[in-house]
Structure formats: structure tokens, C-alpha cells
Write a structure and sequence with these properties.
Number of domains: 1
Helix content: 55-70%
Strand content: under 5%
Distance between the termini: 42 Å
Number of helices: 8
Number of strands: 0
Radius of gyration: 18 Å
Length: 185
């Protein structure tokens, strides 16, 4: 037997999560990017080794994707965009959670909520990266039979197109939202 529980976060709840994210981001401002990525990866390892509820497990791929986005040498996010992703991962470097991870069934609930909020905030970055990965896979055999220089040129052209698209979409969102604060503003 399973039990379905759903809830809605209102503006006050979201404000609270923005404050938590801001505090985490500020506390990691001086950390090296590799340390932030390592801490987020360690969280994934802890979650993977625990008896994880499905509602958490379903969100872990988004966190893995954020990490891959930062570490993929072909993708190479521009500095400003990489800082946004690192700011998103900042929460996952904190040793103290809203709900301690060792609480059975609920310990990773705050992490799952934050992953969901971060994924929504970075949806254009995630979409662009997923399109890039799909393009690279789609062209893999074609790229494989050509020179490394030609491969890099194709990937760089696609990367530039996708980054331009992500910046246009993010700008359109910012203009449409007016002054509605996101997690990183």
C-alpha cells in the first residue's frame, strides 16, 4: 500500500527557500567550484546509498545533470552561467539541512524540494544542455569519422546557438516576471 501526499508551496514558503538558498550561496562564495561540485556529488552518493523514497530519487537525475553540465568539457558554460549553476549547487554543500538526512522517509525531502526549485529556475540551462548532449549523440558517428578539428567546430557552433537561445529565453522570462524574485536574485 502506498500513500500519496501532495502540497503546495505558497509565496511565503518560496521566500523562505530563497533565503536559505541565498545563505547557502553566500557561505560558498569563497569555495572553489570543484569543491562545490564535489560536495553535491557526495550528497548524491549519500542519497544513493540510503533507502531513498521515490519522490527523492525521481529528482536526483536533475542534480546529476547540473553537475554534468559544469564538468562537461565540450559544453563549457560561460563564467556567468556557470556561477548560476554553482549557486544552485551551493545548498547541497551545506552539512546542516532543514530536515536532517538521517530522518527515515523525510530526511531528503528538503533536498528534493530544493532540487525541484533549482531545476525550475535553471530550466533554460538544463534544456540547452540536454539539447547539446542529444546533438552530440546524434552526430557521434558522423563526428567520429571526421577530424577532431571539424568535430570541435560542429560542437562549438551548436553550443553557441544553444547558449544564445538560453540567454534569450532567460531574458524573456525576466521581462515577463517583472520583479518576481527567483532563487538567485
Amino acid at each position: 500500500m502506498s500513500l500519496r501526499v501532495s502540497f503546495e508551496l505558497d509565496d511565503n514558503d518560496l521566500r523562505h527557500f530563497r533565503l536559505i538558498m541565498r545563505a547557502a550561496r553566500d557561505s560558498t562564495a569563497r569555495q572553489a567550484p570543484e569543491d562545490i561540485v564535489a560536495a553535491a556529488t557526495a550528497l548524491l552518493d549519500r542519497i544513493d546509498s540510503a533507502a531513498t523514497p521515490r519522490f527523492v530519487a525521481e529528482r536526483l537525475d536533475k542534480l546529476r545533470l547540473l553537475i554534468r553540465m559544469l564538468t562537461d568539457l565540450d559544453w563549457r558554460l560561460p563564467h556567468h552561467d556557470a556561477r548560476r549553476v554553482l549557486a544552485a549547487l551551493a545548498y547541497f554543500t551545506e552539512s546542516e539541512d532543514l530536515i536532517p538526512d538521517h530522518v527515515p522517509g523525510l530526511g531528503f525531502l528538503d533536498d528534493a524540494i530544493m532540487i525541484e526549485l533549482v531545476a525550475r529556475e535553471l530550466r533554460h540551462e538544463l534544456d540547452a544542455y540536454q539539447d547539446f548532449v542529444a546533438y552530440r549523440l546524434e552526430r557521434a558517428s558522423e563526428i567520429k569519422h571526421n577530424s577532431l578539428t571539424r568535430r570541435n567546430k560542429w560542437l562549438e557552433e551548436r553550443r553557441r546557438e544553444l547558449l544564445d537561445r538560453l540567454h534569450r529565453r532567460r531574458q524573456a522570462d525576466a521581462e515577463g516576471e517583472g520583479s518576481a524574485p527567483g532563487l538567485f536574485r
